Amino acid sequence: MAVKIIDNPFYQMLRNEQVAQFNEQRASVDTLDFSNCDFRGLDLRGLNADGINFSGAYFRGADLRGIDFAQANLRGASLASAQVSGCYFPAQLNPNEIELSISRGTRMRYQ
Question: Which candidate, 30, 40, 49, 32, places its Cα nearest to that of 2?
Answer without folding.
Answer: 40
